[in-house]
Each structure stands twice: as C-alpha cells, then as structure tokens.
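Exercise 3.2. Students should predict the tertiary structure of the chain below and write it as structure tokens, then compare their answer with the key that follows.

Predict this chain's 3D structure.
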Amino acid sequence: MRGTNVHDVRLGKQTVFLSNAMSEQIVVVGSYNFAFFFKGRSLPAKGESILGDVFYEGHGGKGSNQAVCAAGLGGNVRFIGCVGDDVYGQGAKKLYEQVGVQTEHLFVESSSHTGVGAILIDQNGDNMISVVPGSNQLLSTAHIDRAESVIASSRILASQLEGPLDTYLYALQTAKKHGVTTLLDPAPAVPLSEEFYAYTDWITPNETEAEILTGVNVSTLDNAVKAGKILCERGVGAAIMKLGERGCIHVTAETEQYYPAYPVSMVDATGAGDAFAAGFMVALASGKTPEEALKIANVVGALSVTKIGVVNAFPTQEEIERIIS
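Answer key:
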C-alpha cells in the first residue's frame, strides 16, 4: 500500500448492520447453475489429470448466489432467471423457498437443461470454474417485460453477465427508466458497449475483470484507482474495485477510498464476490451509506471464504452483526 494516495477507511465499531432497518426490495437478474465441486492439493495444468481429495455438489450461479446470500442477510429479494424442467430446476425453486427468495419470476424453460458448473479448488482455496449455462441463455427481454412492475417497485436491481448480454442490458435500462439504482457485477467479463456503463450506477469488477474491461493491470492500488477512473469516464456512477485479500477501493470521478480486507483464513474463495455484492446491496437497501455498505460487504465477502462450498458458506445476518457491532 506504500506509494498510494488512496484514502484508507477501516472497519469501525460504530457501524451497525440491519437490526433497526427494513430492507427495501432488491431484484437480482441472473443465472442459476447446479455446481459440482472437486477439491485437491493443486489445480490441473493444461492436459493434466490429477486426483482430488473431496467431492460435493450444491447450488450456484452468480445471480442465484447473490439473491440467496442477500435473503440470508435479511434482504427482501426477488430473483429473475430461467431454469430447466429437470431435477436441478426443481432444486433451485426449493432452495429459494427455504431462504425466502421470491420466485414468481423464476421461469421454467423445458427446451433446455438447467445450467451446470464444475468448480476445481486447490489446498489454498483458489479455484477454476467451467459453466455450461443451459437455460440461462434463454432469459430474454420478454421475461424482463413480464417482471417490469417488480423492477419498478424496487430499490436496487443487480445484474451479472452469465447469460444473454442484451437481456442484462435491457434489465438495467428498465430499472433506470423507473429510477431504480443499478449494480453490475461484470462476470464473466467481456468487452461491454457504452450503453452498459451509461445505465450502471455501481460496477464491481475483481482484478481479472478490471483488466479485461480497461486494459489496466490492477496489481497496485494506484492502478486499481486508474482502472476505476476509466470506468467512471465511460459513464458508471461509481466503481468498486474488488482486490481479494487486499480489500476494495471505492472510486468515483472525483474521489477514491480504500477499504482493507477483513482478515480471515481462506478455505474456499468460491462465491466470495457474490457474497460481497449481497452484503453491499442489502446494506444500501436498508438505508446505509455507501461507506457503511462497503465495510459490511468486506466482512460478508471475507467470512464466505472460511468454509468449503458456496450457499452453505454464506454468513448470516447474526454472524455479521456480531463482528461489526
């Protein structure tokens, strides 16, 4: 961190989570995938086969993860997405019913299978992920139109890029038409049109995604700020540069603030970015300032890496409140 002029904001005991606030509605537009996890000592190189130590399976998909984690943190959450008419799609609906995610706009498309993914994890918690999106690719602008009244009544709409880009852009445009705050988690990262940036209030790239979007290697905090400024110049309201164990930086056209990571022992980093987004959204929807919301998001993201898995590793509202207060 030496050599940077980024303002350092640390977690303060004065921060309060959601005990005295009711979350306004959050809409997540995104993907659901059923995931197969393989954990071993190392990740395979190209053409290499290795033996793993642990296998398990569970729910995944960036949009679904964010919705589920947000609901677990007390958020009032609705999910817009597509699943197949199969056992994995049925499992998705059961999951949402259990955690309190509203499913009136979970669309079942029988012409394709539910999305699936394979996640390889090494002994340090680092991972490699491959996804076959299946029915996620069928999410259309017509689905967004059917959910427009729900979007219009929301505080925040969150989107990712695991599916048709034109649909996600249309969702952002629909939200902005109704004055709804928009959050874009640009994963998996691809070059985006200027329209995406124009309709995005908050963008949350990690290090790899930031470099794909801007061409800037964010190996230093100064470079992370530089990449964030580029995104702001393209039209986003603010960029949250997620830097893993280094924390995150909140960048606007005029300012930048650094938030150190909450220190934990990493077991499995899968889903950490989704947990971060969920914590940030719920805090904002509950009336927290961006500074308070980012402190909370850092803790939610950090705690999610302390267990193997994704959904089962998401921290609860009670766990977060114990740490922050």
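Discussion points: The chain has one domain: 23-43+52-317. The CA atoms of residues 6 and 304 lie 26 Å apart.
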